[in-house]
Amino acid sequence: MSFRGLLIGAVLLAGLGQTQDLRLYFSLVQQGRLAEVRQSVPELLKQYPNHPAIKYLHALTVTDGDSSVALFRDLIENHGGSEYAGAAAMKIGEYLYARGLYSQAGVQLRQIPLYYSSSPHIQRAIDLMVNSYKATGEIDSAAYYLARFKRRYPDLNYDYGIGGLDEIEVPPGEVELVKLDKAQVQQKLQEAEPPARPQPKAAVPRPWIVQVGAFGNYANALSLKTSLEENGYTVEIHEVASANRRLHAVRVVRFASRDQAGTIGNELKRNYGLNYLVMNRPE
């Protein structure tokens, strides 16, 4: 039997019942012998088109980076509970980092310790996340997430030259956009497509904003901002004074009309149970 036949046979005879039956493939990938594995992928996809292990293997062997990322995203979307989802998320983060897309890389890489607690890539994900935030000058964000992860994964290395992590206030639980059922809404946050909203012409003033919260604790405001941004909204935090207190207002921005802002406000309330205020705040 040919080498290719042995590869296919090893998997097909095992029925993909155990992960170790795929170790040969992944070992060959690690050795850089992609061409040999790539020969087997079409037959594997034909036999098991929806198996996450085969989808992951396929994405590893695609030479075009953007196409590979698209395959990894498809795997995460359709097999988010599989053991390969965290590895796929890490591959996307590494690709964005290697491309110098540090802002996107930081958002992507922090998802590994947030959502894939059993992943073996958590330390590397945090390392690259910190480097990404340093590259974009977002040291406050790096410090906040390091403080958050240090409480969750105390045995990891946090020596990044960013002090005061133990003094940073972290909410006792993640800030959820919750209306009724916590688990159901959290799933929406992870799976929701970026919301479709009207895009005004560049020349049109956009003075309208949607304020969805004002927090005395900056960490709470940042956590809500992050959750909304991960679901496609453009969000800003502004300091405001209220009854001799300094608050951190979380605002979804910016819209050309009150109606456009109101549409987004209703969307946030309907999907995530957030109360909102539509306000005129010229740039």
Describe the structure.
By secondary structure, the protein is α+β, with helices and mostly antiparallel strands. It has two domains: 3-167, Serine Threonine Protein Phosphatase 5, Tetratricopeptide repeat; 182-280, Sporulation related repeat (Alpha-Beta Plaits, 2-Layer Sandwich). It is 54% helix and 11% strand. The chain contains 13 helices and four strands. It has helices at 3-14, 23-30, 34-47, 52-61, 65-78, 84-98, 102-109, 111-115, 122-136, 139-152, 182-191, 218-229, 258-272; strands at residues 208-215, 235-242, 245-255, 277-280. Strands 2-3-1-4 form a four-stranded antiparallel beta sheet, covered by helices on one side. Helix 7 (102-109) packs antiparallel against helix 9.
Q: What is the mean pLDDT?
A: 80
Largest sheet composition: 4 strands, antiparallel
Sequence of strands across the biggest β-sheet: 2-3-1-4
Rg, Å, rounded: 22 Å
CATH top level of the largest domain?
A: Mainly Alpha
Show unreliable segments: 1-20, 174-182
Task: Give a quick rundown of the structure.
This protein is an alpha+beta fold and 283 residues long.
Q: Topology of this protein?
A:
Blueprint: H1 3-14, H2 23-30, H3 34-47, H4 52-61, H5 65-78, H6 84-98, H7 102-109, H8 111-115, H9 122-136, H10 139-152, H11 182-191, E1 208-215, H12 218-229, E2 235-242, E3 245-255, H13 258-272, E4 277-280
Antiparallel strand pairs: 1-3, 1-4, 2-3
